[in-house]
Structure formats: C-alpha cells, structure tokens
C-alpha cells in the first residue's frame, strides 16, 4: 500500500510570527518546523503501514529549501522516503496554487491513500485535504479522530468525525484522501535510531517543470487571492490586576457589574 | 442589484445563528439568495426572509445526510450556475464551520475561484468584497480579497450582528443532479451531540473556561456554576480536555473552537499561544490564576491573582446575590 503524507513546514507558533514586505509569511526571523498537527498525520500513516501486509510511507511537502527539516523530522519518526517540491516560482502561492502542486506531486508519486493534518498552524484554513480530494477525484474522509484502514490497496478506510452537532462514522473505498485531528492519537517521538536512519533515507526534489506546471499558474502574482494589508493587532491596553486577599471574587463581581455583565 | 449566494447552516429547519449573521454581511454586498439543503430545508424560509433573503433555494434528498460534504457541493454548484447564468452573482458566502469550509473550498476549485476562509468582517470594495482576517493567533489583522473568479468567502461566527430586514424570501426548488463523487464517502452512523441546555460555545455572549488549574473533572462543577450564574457557555483548555475532565467539543483554541464573545473568563489557564488563538478576539477578557506571571494576564482587562477554588465560588455567589 502506497501512503503519501502531506506535511507543511511552518514558522514556530511560539516565536514572533510576522509578515514580510510582500505580505507573505516572514520566514527569516522565526525558526521553522514540521507543523505539529502534521505529526498526527505521520503517526496515523505509520500505524496504518504497520497494520498493512506491505506498505510504504512517503512524506511530501511543498515549501522552500528549509522545508527539508520538516521532511527529516517525519523520516526520523519512521516514514520511508520523502518528496520535496521546491521552486522559486512557488513563493506566495495560496491554497489554490499549493493544492494544484500537491495534487500533481501526489499523482506523480503514486498513492492508495493520502493523509494530511486537520489544518496548518500558520494558514489554518483547514481546507486543503478537501481540495485535494476534489482535484484527485477520490473520496474525502476528513477530520477523523479515529481512523482504520482494512483490506490493503483496494480496501476501505473508516473513521470517526466529531462535528459541531453530531459525531459521524464514515466509510470510503481506497484510494482516498484522509485528514486526522489532534485527537487521533499521540504522535511518537523520533528515536535516536530513527534520527540516524533518517539521514540515509531518500529525499527526492521536484520542481514545477517536473510536474508539468507553468510558473504563471502559481506563486504570488498568479494567486487566486490577494492580501492588501497586514497590520499588527494593537497590544491590549494594560488591564487591572488585583491579588486575592479574601475579596477577589467580590472585586471581580464589581468589575463585571461596572461593565454591565451582571 | 447583484445577488449574493448564502449557504444556510441549519439543523432540521432550525437556522443556526452564524447564517443569520452572514445575511447581515451579505446585505452590504447585494441581495442575499439563500440555499438551504436537506431535511427541513423549506422550513428555514420564514426565518431567512425575516433576515433579508430575497429568495430561498431549497433541495431535499437523502444524499445530503447519507454522504459526506460532496452532495452539498453539487447542490451549491447548481445554485451558483443558476445565478451566474442570470449574470447577477457577486459572491458566495458560507459559515466557517468545519463542514462549511470544506463545501466552500471544493466549490471554489470547481468554479475556478479563489477562496478566503475565516473572515471576521466583510465590506464592499472597488474590486469586490474585502475580507478582514485575523492571522497568527490573532496577533495580525489582514485585509484580503479574491482576485480570480466569483469570490468564495467563509465567515466566522460572531462576526456581525443579527439584524431583522424583512424581504420576500420566495421559496424555489433547486434542481440538483449528483455527480459520481457525491456518494464516495458514506456516513454509516450519526450520534447527535447531547444538549447541555447551555448556549452554543461559538455563539455565546459569555464564555467561562477552565484549564489544568481546575484539577479534576469533578471540580468543573465550579466552572459550570459560574457559567450558569451568567447564562454562559463552558469552555476548556486542551490540557483539561486531554486529561479527560471535559469533552473535546468544549475545547477553546487553535484545534478547538474559536470564540469571540463579549466576555471571556479564564480560570486556571496559563494562556499558551494555541489557547490564545481561540479567544484573543474576545471583547472583554478576565482571568483568575494563582501565578502572577501567567501569560494570560498580558491579555486581560481584569485579572485576579489567586486560587480559583476561593475566587470563583465567591464570584458566583456574589453574582447570584446581585441578581437577587
Ligand atoms: C495567515 C495566513 C492566511 C492565509 N489565508 C489564505 C486564504 O484565505 N486563502 C488562500 O487561498 N490562502 C491563504 N493562505 C495561504 C495558504 O495557507 C497556503 O497556500 C497553504 O499551504 C494552504 O493552506 P493552509 O496552510 O491553511 O492549509 P490547511 O488547509 O490548513 O492545511 C491542512 C493540511 O494540508 C497539508 N498542507 C498544507 N499546506 C501544505 C504544503 N505546503 N505542503 C504539504 N502539505 C501541506 C498539511 O497536511 C496540513 O495539515 C494563508 C496563509 C497564511 C499564512
Ligand atoms: C498544535 C497544538 C495545538 C494546540 N491547541 C490547543 C487548543 O486548541 N486549546 C488549548 O487550550 N491548548 C492547545 N494546545 C496546548 C497549549 O499549548 C497548552 O498546553 C494548553 O493550552 C495549556 O492548558 P492550561 O493553560 O489549562 O494548562 P497549563 O499551561 O498547565 O496552565 C495551568 C494554569 O493554571 C494555574 N493554576 C493551577 N492551579 C490553580 C489554582 N488552584 N487556582 C488558579 N490557578 C491555578 C497555573 O498557575 C497555570 O497558569 C495546543 C498545542 C499544540 C502544540
């Protein structure tokens, strides 16, 4: 079974994230890493592979040179190989551009199941997996907090999707696109052996030519959306902070009353 | 006047509040035409008309409930095609629920349009609707627009007031034919979420949340009592949810619900960036934490450094006393 995991390289959320002058993500000032939510996707891929008779896990990213770090992390967790789509013309791609490239790269790699995270920790749109299913013309089995694959490459994927108003049990035939939530199960830590082994695992680089995509279909200029401005939110004005010396609850009630909440 | 297609989120005909907010925003851009799908769709018309829908397109079919997302995309696409053939369609608006975003995104691919998700405000602009988004855990505010195709925009709950604006709301049946992908993902079982009787987290005017400091499932009764004294929804940090003290459906933050109430009260929550991502845009923020250095205090309008087991019950009692 061929499992492809989409992983994104993102700026560390605990750093001081900013926009660059062209209103794309500033990648200079903050360290990047494998989006934590994609670790859950890698974990489920590895578990599905362990259950299957024969399986290969490929991790795939679209991103700049440094995005290799995200691939190495996933390889050290236990993925078998990696594909990196890297091209200067990709800078500033929006979700339509990114998904076009990912879909082509997935087809080029070959797949029985594609696994993604529930959302990136930077763009946080949470729509890319559904878009991939649309582009690839296969079922979407998304936002699963529990996932199971049975019957090999021609088998089925089932899972639980916890929605706003109901919890649903889903079922689809492979090939399919799956996304998993952070409720799907703790992601494993890379072992020392895993980290050493990752250094020898193959990372294949592809550019737009390799995928038959024209430079003017992607990137900032060709994006389907345009950001006109990005402004830092003004810091909240310093509030009142009191120490409880027995009357903290009452004083808080006074504040709430003064704001007309009571 | 241009028409704005509005996707209706409803449960068996009961329209959810975010859709009514969308109608307020849609009226800034043109005449709202609502699309309601599935069981009870026609029953939404009166409410939608009261809030400004000039037309209500409805479709009922078993596929909407039996299969995931795609049948609804087929239907929304049919509505899109009907309106754009008449040459009057200016935008498609969808509530930013998990399902709403997926429907919107697949429609955008099919019609060759760009998509903006999680807008928190919308205005008419010279080159189409301008969406305000909140980025990087609400530390930035961006303004964006769709530059290709008919703008598809999803809007977060609590982004606009619900306003009555009576309109015709003429009900029309939408003809839908389902494509090959529609039946790809079967919903084999569905368990509705049990109602707690408290307001819906994303829609509530007041949210009272507890974190690791609450220290046990049984202690959440303290948080619930405060919530009930204020008519509030209950939220929880991921630490409290992961410990099994409160259901995941109540988690506030990046991977939980994002809330933007008039008042947010955090007790025993440190204020990690991922939690802040889900509550930073609350109008008034209050925290109770025994650690004066907790990052949540950087956000608060009013903070109490103290033990929540003393402060919260006293607050609840005082609120009840004041309410008589
Ligand atoms: C603050 C901000 C706001 C944005 N808003 C918009 C917008 O409104 N409209 C728009 O078109 N674009 C937007 N973008 C750009 C968009 O985020 C990226 O083009 C993008 O990679 C896809 O969206 P996402 O990261 O939000 O993905 P999500 O849909 O949140 O990601 C889900 C999953 O898709 C996979 N994935 C996503 N990106 C990649 C990748 N590059 N490589 C491999 N796997 C990947 C991962 O498995 C991830 O967990 C925004 C970007 C930022 C930083
Ligand atoms: C990818 C990712 C996504 C995440 N998504 C979310 C999310 O959606 N939501 C979320 O909340 N977190 C999320 N997290 C986790 C987040 O990073 C924090 O770990 C989490 O928010 C901490 O929860 P907490 O504040 O309850 O616990 P802690 O950080 O442990 O804080 C507990 C606080 O309680 C105080 N306290 C203890 N006892 C008392 C007492 N008796 N009285 C008063 N105060 C007391 C302590 O001083 C402390 O400040 C995510 C993390 C990652 C990596």
UniProtKB/TrEMBL annotation, chain A:
InterPro entries in UniProt: ETF_a/b_N, ETF_b, ETF_beta_N, Rossmann-like_a/b/a_fold
Any one Gene Ontology molecular-function term assigned to this protein's record: electron transfer activity
Transmembrane segments: none
SUPFAM superfamilies on file: Adenine nucleotide alpha hydrolases-like
Domain of life: Bacteria
UniProt keyword Nucleus present: no
GO cellular component, one term: cytosol
CDD domains according to UniProt: ETF_beta (cd01714)
Pfam hit, one: ETF
Coiled coil: none
Electron transfer flavoprotein alpha/beta-subunit N-terminal domain ranges (all copies): 22-215
Cofactor dependence: FAD
Keywords associated with the record: Electron transport, Transport
Function comment: The electron transfer flavoprotein serves as a specific electron acceptor for other dehydrogenases. It transfers the electrons to the main respiratory chain via ETF-ubiquinone oxidoreductase (ETF dehydrogenase).
The protein, known as: Electron transfer flavoprotein subunit beta
Organism: Streptomyces laurentii
TrEMBL record, chain B:
SMART domains: ETF
Any one Pfam family match given in the protein's UniProt record, by short name: ETF_alpha
Free-text remark on how the cofactor is bound: Binds 1 FAD per dimer.
Domain Electron transfer flavoprotein alpha/beta-subunit N-terminal: 4-187
BP-aspect Gene Ontology terms: fatty acid beta-oxidation using acyl-CoA dehydrogenase
One Gene Ontology MF term: electron transfer activity
Cofactor(s) required, per the database record: FAD
Highest taxon of source: Bacteria
Residues annotated for FAD binding in this entry: 212, 237-238, 251-255, 268-275, 289
Keywords of this entry: Electron transport, FAD, Flavoprotein, Transport
Protein's job: The electron transfer flavoprotein serves as a specific electron acceptor for other dehydrogenases. It transfers the electrons to the main respiratory chain via ETF-ubiquinone oxidoreductase (ETF dehydrogenase).
Similarity comment: Belongs to the ETF alpha-subunit/FixB family.
Subunit organization: Heterodimer of an alpha and a beta subunit.
PANTHER family: ELECTRON TRANSFER FLAVOPROTEIN ALPHA, ELECTRON TRANSFER FLAVOPROTEIN SUBUNIT ALPHA, MITOCHONDRIAL
Name of this chain's protein: Electron transfer flavoprotein, alpha subunit
Species of provenance: Streptomyces laurentii
Taxon lineage: Bacteria, Bacillati, Actinomycetota, Actinomycetes, Kitasatosporales
């Amino acid at each position: 079974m061929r499992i492809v995991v989409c992983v994104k390289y993102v700026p560390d959320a605990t750093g001081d994230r900013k926009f660059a002058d062209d209103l794309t993500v500033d990648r200079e000032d903050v360290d990047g890493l494998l989006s934590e939510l994609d670790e859950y996707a890698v974990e489920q891929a590895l578990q599905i592979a362990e259950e299957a008779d024969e399986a290969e896990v490929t991790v795939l990213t679209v991103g700049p040179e440094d995005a290799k770090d995200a691939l190495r992390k996933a390889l050290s967790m236990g993925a078998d190989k990696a594909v990196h789509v890297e091209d200067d013309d990709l800078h500033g791609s929006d979700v339509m551009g990114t998904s076009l490239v990912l879909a082509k790269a997935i087809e080029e790699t070959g797949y029985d199941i594609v696994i993604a995270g529930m959302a990136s920790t930077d763009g946080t749109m949470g729509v890319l997996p559904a878009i991939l299913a649309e582009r690839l013309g296969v079922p979407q089995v998304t936002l699963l907090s529990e996932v199971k694959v049975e019957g090999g490459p021609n088998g089925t994927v089932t899972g639980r999707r916890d929605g706003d108003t109901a919890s649903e049990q889903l079922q689809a035939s492979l090939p399919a696109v799956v996304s998993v939530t952070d409720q799907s199960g703790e992601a494993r830590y890379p072992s020392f052996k895993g980290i050493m082994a990752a250094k020898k695992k193959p990372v294949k680089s592809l550019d737009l030519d390799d995928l038959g995509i024209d430079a003017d279909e992607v990137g900032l200029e060709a994006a389907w959306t345009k950001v006109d401005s990005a402004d830092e939110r003004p810091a909240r004005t310093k509030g009142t902070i009191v120490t409880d010396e027995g009357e903290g609850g009452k004083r808080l009630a006074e504040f709430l009353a003064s704001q007309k909440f009571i | 006047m241009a028409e704005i297609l509005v996707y209706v989120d409803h449960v068996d005909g009961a329209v959810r509040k975010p859709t009514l907010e969308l109608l307020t925003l849609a009226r800034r851009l043109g005449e709202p035409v609502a699309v309601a799908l599935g069981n009870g769709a026609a029953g939404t018309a009166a409410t939608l008309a009261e809030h400004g829908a000039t037309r209500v397109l409805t479709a009922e079919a078993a596929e909407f409930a039996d299969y995931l997302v795609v049948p609804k995309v087929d239907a929304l696409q049919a509505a899109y095609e009907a309106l754009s053939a008449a040459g009057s369609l200016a935008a498609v608006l969808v509530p930013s629920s998990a399902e709403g975003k997926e429907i919107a995104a697949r429609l955008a691919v099919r019609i060759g349009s760009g998509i903006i998700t999680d807008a928190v405000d919308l205005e008419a602009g010279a080159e189409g609707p301008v969406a305000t988004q909140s980025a990087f855990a609400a530390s930035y505010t961006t303004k964006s627009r769709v530059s290709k195709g008919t703008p598809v925009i999803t809007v977060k709950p609590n982004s606009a007031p619900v306003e009555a604006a009576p309109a015709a709301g003429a009900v029309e049946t939408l003809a839908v034919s389902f494509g090959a992908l529609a039946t790809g993902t079967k919903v084999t079982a569905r368990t509705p979420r049990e109602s707690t009787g408290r307001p819906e987290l994303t829609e509530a005017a007041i949210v009272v949340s507890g974190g690791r400091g609450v220290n046990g499932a049984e202690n959440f009764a303290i948080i619930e009592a405060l919530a009930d004294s204020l008519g509030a929804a209950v939220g929880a940090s991921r630490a409290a949810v992961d410990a099994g003290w409160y259901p995941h459906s109540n988690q506030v933050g990046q991977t939980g619900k994002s809330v933007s109430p008039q008042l947010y009260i955090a007790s025993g929550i440190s204020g990690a960036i991922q939690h802040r991502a889900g509550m930073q845009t609350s109008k008034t923020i209050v925290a109770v934490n025994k650690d004066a250095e907790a990052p949540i205090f950087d956000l608060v309008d009013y903070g109490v450094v103290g033990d929540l087991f003393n402060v919260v019950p006293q607050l609840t009692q005082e609120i009840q006393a004041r309410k008589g």
